[in-house]
Amino acid sequence: MNQKLVIAVCTAQRPKMLQACLDSLDKLIQPDGTELAIVVVENDPVPHFAGQAAEDMKTRLSLPVFFYHEKRKGIPFARNTALEAALEHGPDWIALIDDDERSEPDWIEKLLAACREHRAEVANGPVRRIYEQPAPHWWKSQLLKSRPTGTVITEAPTNNVLLSARIVSRDGLGMRFDERLTFGSEDIDFFRRAHAAGAKMIWVDDAFVEEDIPASRVTTGRLLSRMHMAATSGAFNIVLREGRAKAALHFIPKCSRRMFFGLLATIIGFVLKPVARKRGEKLYYYGLIRLMKGSGNLRGLLGRAHNYYDVIDGN
């Protein structure tokens, strides 16, 4: 009997990126004994891909694709709707990919083969980032970390992942994304809980997707805002899982160190910039990043939401 694998894509106001993503999925090598289908969840108050727009996109693809709408703005709402949509098609496996990414033709084949070989229920692969313009010299870009395929992991993002339907099905673990985490870390939290529930999770080193990074995402303000958001959501996640008192004991000393050394580095970098511009800028922005992380942690402890994802990069 063939197995069913459903690929879920969440999208919002990025029709060109979504089309490129779906075109890449349509070129996937179909693993033996596996049926593929795609579900797309549009996270916007008013859907763009309705009626004729959805039909036009479907006609371009050879794989069956189904469109759904989630009007509540927020990534965990869209992701949970995507899980529900995928389950409607009776899958054995569910894959998640972002709308600003494109898969390699052997992406699913590599993830599924690794799960079968290593008897895993979750497989996470690397993302190759394609920058529209270079990031500033002071920014430490995320680099691919090569690890042997089959390496056990304890957390994963949703930008390149395959999971057994048992993890989300009602007669399995029945897991969903925490809808309180509307401003980040909902994916890391989800897979940490999956690991804690006994799901074996592995890294697949050669199952690549490519992510387009628009120029708007590497401006100084946007980069600093992302650091602030990540620190906010990380602290808020700990508040939800371990309580505010325990989170405060962990983060308040860390926040104090980050704020103190961040302020010191910013001042020294500012003074140094006129005589050693590149070195001074690097120290100055290192300090600002520390300040963003420290203030973000405090924001998360207070449970205050962040608006980073209110701005949509790309089209």
Automatic annotation (TrEMBL):
Gene3D superfamilies: Spore Coat Polysaccharide Biosynthesis Protein SpsA, Chain A (3.90.550.10). The keyword Membrane applies. GO terms for molecular function: glycosyltransferase activity. The chain crosses the membrane at residues 259-276. PANTHER family: GLYCOSYLTRANSFERASE, GLYCOSYLTRANSFERASE TAGX-RELATED. InterPro entries: Glyco_trans_2-like, Glycosyltransf_2, Nucleotide-diphossugar_trans. This is Glycosyltransferase. Its EC number is 2.4.-.-. Pfam families: Glycos_transf_2 (PF00535). The keyword Ligase does not apply.
